[in-house]
Automatic annotation (TrEMBL):
<keyword id="KW-0997">Cell inner membrane</keyword>
<dbReference type="GO" id="GO:0005886">
    <property type="term" value="C:plasma membrane"/>
</dbReference>
<keyword id="KW-0812">Transmembrane</keyword>
<feature type="domain" description="Type II secretion system protein GspF">
    <location>
        <begin position="274"/>
        <end position="396"/>
    </location>
</feature>
<dbReference type="Pfam" id="PF00482">
    <property type="entry name" value="T2SSF"/>
</dbReference>
<feature type="transmembrane region" description="Helical">
    <location>
        <begin position="212"/>
        <end position="238"/>
    </location>
</feature>
<keyword id="KW-0813">Transport</keyword>
<dbReference type="GO" id="GO:0015628">
    <property type="term" value="P:protein secretion by the type II secretion system"/>
</dbReference>
<keyword id="KW-1003">Cell membrane</keyword>
<keyword id="KW-0472">Membrane</keyword>
<dbReference type="InterPro" id="IPR001992">
    <property type="entry name" value="T2SS_GspF/T4SS_PilC_CS"/>
</dbReference>
<keyword id="KW-1133">Transmembrane helix</keyword>
<comment type="similarity">
    <text>Belongs to the GSP F family.</text>
</comment>
<protein>
    <submittedName>
        <fullName>Type II secretion system protein F</fullName>
    </submittedName>
</protein>
<feature type="transmembrane region" description="Helical">
    <location>
        <begin position="170"/>
        <end position="192"/>
    </location>
</feature>
<feature type="domain" description="Type II secretion system protein GspF">
    <location>
        <begin position="70"/>
        <end position="193"/>
    </location>
</feature>
<dbReference type="InterPro" id="IPR003004">
    <property type="entry name" value="GspF/PilC"/>
</dbReference>
Amino acid sequence: MAAEEQIYFNYVATDKTGKKITGELAGKNELAVRAELRRQGLKPTKVKLKPKPLFGKAKANITAKDIALFSRQLATMMTAGVPLVTAFEIVGRGHENPAMQDLILGIKSDVESGNTLAETLRKYPLQFNELYCNLVAAGEQAGILEGLLHKIATYLEKTESLKAKIKKALFYPVAVLVVAGIVTAILLIFVVPTFEELFKGFGAELPAFTQFVVGLSHGLVNTWYYILGVIGGMIYGFKSLKQNSKEFNNRLDRLMLRLGPIGSILNKAAVARFARTLSTMSAAGVPLVEALKSVAGASGNIVYYDAIMKMRDDVSNGQQLQLSMRQSGIFPNMVIQMIAIGEESGSLDSMLGKVADFYEEEVDNAVDALTSLLEPMIMAFLGVVIGGLIVAMYLPIFKMGAVT
């Protein structure tokens, strides 16, 4: 999924002692920023949208890839023995994204003030989600922060790689069909009418196929603005429903899992994401019940979210994870067997890592197979549509040549 757009607000607030504090904070809206300030123990007196620069290029958004790179760089620095604050300074100053530079240096300032890294990261919920902050907190408490940062970096890199594969599976056929639609529309609106003027001088009846294409051209020329309006309305309606309707998103999630090869890829990706997230949290020593809550939030699909939350309830009541997974009915038998072995041998995180590796490779292979299957089908479709239009335009000319 794409990263959320960062909206920055300037604020004025007072702390518990009445001291005036000013600063900048990212949030979805003013209410969210005020709520975050209160959560930090500050009383906001003024929150205002940060004005955009009149001249010059605006800062780029912070993406999940930026966070993954930051995590890997920070882990590498700490492993090399660089102190945490110094590592922030080096990584922050060297980052190409100005917004990321500001974020890292802001974190450095808070850590220098005596806050823990987990407490500081919780101030930036748009960049560091609950899962990330929980893992950092576990690493700090256990004294293994650098090891946990390596695991977090690996987790984020694997997750982003998985997202890229899914986007590839969904984007490729859509992009080709959109281009085909645009080319077809151009031919019908601009090329066919030119041929029609030529055909009027023939003084003979046009072949039925050519008449059909000319009719399509007339229809598109006369109604293209209506068609564009309908397409634009559908896109706007879809985006609006996706942003505002939980029921629509739930139905869409369930529908996507049933879409043949696409659904198969999404199911495998959800299993891979489940295994990778739970493996990372288990390795960090996070209790299973608490970990499952974060895993559910990271599942990316309402079907898996509901199933994992039900599994969390079952586990909190003393049931084994593998038994609860079997009852859910959505996990493959191989996954359940691997987790059963992991529970019995005390190596759950290792087994989950193997499951994640297997299903990430399965997603990769499935995407390649789908692309290989779609390529000839799409080429055939384009050949029929574009070739058919060209043949329709040249049929009268061939007919005249045959009569001559």
